[in-house]
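Input (structure):
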């Protein structure tokens, strides 16, 4: 509900204590006034003021009794802070989902895939680089992988990196390309890899919970600064939980898909 104040009422009458220091109201464009205000309307913690024929932008008031002043934050500034928090949350959640997918893709399922080599790094002239950045990786058929480096002098370094990985495959270097056969997984190995995938999925969910924690702290900070009310924070927290639940379901979906690939002979 909006409450209108008469122009005959001095702004100092908003104070509870008698004879307080003369207040000063600050506006976004540095316009300042004291004493009587032509008109003032208030809704929740926000006010709109008009001085003469000039209507000033709605502001949020925060009373500082010790100094007798009013500190202001525009609605636009508060909305911008909320939007920045929401943007950061979604960007970090999307990155978390991509990391989970990347980890899943690097685990072989018995069927050849270039993504199986995504995690391999090669010591290329003293600098660790991803294998896929210095070689073309393809799958001629469902049980073999072909690695063709852009620089043939890197063949030995690539071979060494593959041998040192946990892929469990033996590279065949013919001086031009590297070929690898993807062995079929045993039943025990499939179960073992399924446990690894489950652990990675849980790590992804922990990352999502940490993102939620950081966002809640940011909202609570705005509440302490009197930019958000307690009800605002509750509503935003509820919306945040809905987003978290959505991304949790995404992790469950990619996990079930990967698990099915691992356990299917």
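Output (sequence):
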């Amino acid at each position: 509900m909006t409450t209108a104040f008469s122009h005959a009422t001095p702004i100092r009458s908003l104070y509870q204590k008698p004879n307080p220091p003369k207040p000063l109201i600050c506006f976004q464009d540095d316009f300042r006034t004291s004493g009587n205000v032509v008109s003032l309307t208030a809704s929740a913690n926000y006010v709109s003021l008009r001085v003469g024929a000039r209507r000033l932008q709605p502001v949020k008031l925060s009373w500082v009794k010790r100094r007798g002043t009013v500190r202001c934050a525009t609605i636009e500034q508060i909305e911008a802070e909320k939007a920045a928090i929401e943007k950061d949350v979604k960007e970090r959640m999307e990155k978390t989902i991509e990391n989970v997918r990347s980890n899943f893709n690097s685990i072989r399922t018995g069927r050849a895939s270039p993504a199986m080599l995504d995690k391999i790094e090669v010591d290329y002239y003293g600098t660790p680089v991803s294998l896929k950045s210095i070689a073309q990786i393809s799958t001629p058929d469902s049980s073999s992988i072909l690695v063709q480096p852009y620089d043939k002098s890197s063949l030995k370094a690539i071979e060494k990196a593959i041998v040192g990985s946990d892929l469990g495959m033996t590279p065949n270097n013919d001086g031009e390309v590297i070929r690898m056969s993807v062995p079929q997984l045993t039943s025990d190995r499939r179960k073992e890899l399924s446990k690894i995938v489950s652990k990675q999925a849980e790590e992804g969910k922990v990352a999502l919970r940490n993102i939620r924690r950081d966002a809640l702290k940011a909202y609570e900070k705005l509440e302490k600064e009197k930019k958000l009310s307690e009800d605002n924070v509750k509503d935003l927290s509820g919306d945040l939980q809905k987003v978290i639940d959505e991304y949790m379901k995404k992790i469950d979906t990619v996990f079930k898909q990967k698990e099915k690939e691992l356990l299917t002979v």
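Notes: Residues 1-52, 55-72 have pLDDT under 50 and may be disordered. The chain is about 45% helix and 20% strand.
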